[in-house]
Design a protein that fits this description.
Blueprint (H helix, E strand, L loop, with lengths): L38 E6 L8 E4 L6 E6 L2 E8 L4 E8 L5 E13 L4 E13 L4 E13 L7 E7 L2 E7 L6 E12 L1
Parallel strand pairs: 1-3
Antiparallel strand pairs: 2-3, 4-11, 5-10, 6-7, 6-11, 7-8, 9-10
Length: about 180
Amino acid sequence: MSQIFKPTSGGTPVIPPDVPEVFQTDVNSPAIPAANILKVFGGQTSINNLLGVQTDGSSGSNTLTVQLTNRLQGAISTIDATPTTIITFGLGVTPAVFTLDGFVSGLNNTVASGGGYFFSAAVRTDGAAATDLGNEFTSIFEEAAMAAADITVGVSGNNLIIQVIGIAATAIDWLAQATYSRVI
């Protein structure tokens, strides 16, 4: 089959544009279409990128992922009031300061109710150990049945730790997300 379209009413033939054969990406480059098909997905990663977005070529496969960067996420379920880690984020071996904004949502499945917790925090690492520079819980929204639940943000070793505290004999599903900036 010809790739040239010839108009029936005269004029010059229209030649279709060239189709890219290789897509260079920020990481794991390149992405290479297979049978002229390139799968493009969205995603997220905790990798630090000042622009907040990067492309991942999956090292030569036909998959290209456009990723939001500098993002942390976690999900967990609790059935008691024990502090439970939902996110552990290693701060790396290079001295740096991290500033975070995030939220945690909790759905109480035992007594239909929920809670939302918003926070800001800052931590510093010397490359071996983390220092908690402080955190602030900017908004807390809870129904009465979630009043005993809580969250904490802190450090352990050289890690940022976000924990949830459930309620005794109560099934709660938790979701946490945060974005960060880092200066080295």
